[in-house]
Amino acid sequence: MALKTSVKVGRISNLSDARYCSGMGVDWLGFRVNKSDPDYINPDLFQEIRGWFSGPEIVAEIYGITTEAVVREAEDNYQPDYLELSLNEISLVQSSSLPLLLSINTLEVPSIKELSHDLQSRIKYLIVPDTLSPNEFAELSKSYSLLLKISDQFKSEFLSLPISGIALEGSAEDKPGIKNYALLADVLEALEEE
Questions:
Q1: Tell me, what's the pLDDT at 113?
Q2: Phi-psi category of 64—alpha, beta or left, where left has phi over 0 and alpha has psi -120 to 50?
Q3: Pair 13, 32: CB distance under 8 Å
Q4: Does residue 8 contact residue 147 with C-beta atoms inside 8 Å?
Q5: DSSP secondary-structure letter at 113?
Q6: Which residues, 6+ apart, have CB-to-CB distance to 180 below 8 Å?
Q7: What is the pLDDT of residue 117?
Q8: What domains appear along the chain, each with residue ranges and CATH number?
Q9: Rg of the chain (C-alpha set)
Q10: How far is CA 55 from CA 86, 135, 173, in A?
Q11: pLDDT digit string, tens, across residues 88-147
Q12: In angstroms, how far is CA 190 from the centroid of its own chain?
């Protein structure tokens, strides 16, 4: 299965999402690794899910962490290919060597320029909202590869923006094995190559 652009799906909390996304050709799967997050996936469940899919790279989503120890723990327990975070956690990844996916909102666009050169060079993808202005897209794409976070619905004109891919989120199962894929399925099916 080939998609028209790269896709990252975060907040994976069940095997159904992981297998569906893997089968659809998603590039990255993100798992919440902060114990206080409502979508937290403990390392044992992660390993169980991990054994059922192949292909996508693993992203440890570290939103809301408060210590560097959690970063080291996440690296040991999940062995991710990337760390995903917001500007709130950026100071806690100094000792990590993993590449970063940094998620920002519209108000944080100016703050990106204030990051150290070292941190800027570690950001492999900047996850940006679909509400940015055309000028903001153009400006940010000069320095970063952008993943467009789809908040509501996918529009084909998104693919004409200067982006490297799309960022989506999984959702909880209704019951084990019972799942409504809604926006996730709509977007992935729209991105399927003819």
A1: 84
A2: left
A3: yes
A4: yes
A5: G
A6: 171, 174
A7: 87
A8: 6-191 (3.20.20.70)
A9: 16
A10: 26, 35, 22
A11: 999 999 889 999 999 999 899 998 888 888 888 999 999 999 889 889 999 999 999 999
A12: 19
74 backbone dihedrals φ, ψ, rounded to 5°: -65, -40
Please state, in angstroms and rounded to a whole number, the distance separating the CA atoms of residues 69 and 76. Answer: 11
User: What single letter denotes the amino acid at residue 53?
Assistant: F
Q: How many CB atoms lie within 10 A of CB 137?
A: 16
3-state secondary structure of 53: coil
Longest CA pairwise span in the chain (Å): 46
Report the distance separating Cα 170 and Cα 109, nearest Å: 25
Distances in Å between the alpha carbon of 38 and those of 31, 34, 59, 77? 12, 9, 17, 19
How far is 10 from 21, CA to CA, in rounded Å?
10
Task: Return the closest-CA partner of residue 30 out of 9, 55, 6, 5.
Answer: 9
pLDDT, residue 179, reads 58
Number of Cβ within a 10 Å radius of residue 46:
22
Type of residue at 45: L
Task: List, in sequence order, the alpha helices (H) in 54-146.
Answer: 68-78, 117-122, 134-141
Structure tokens at 67: 């210590």
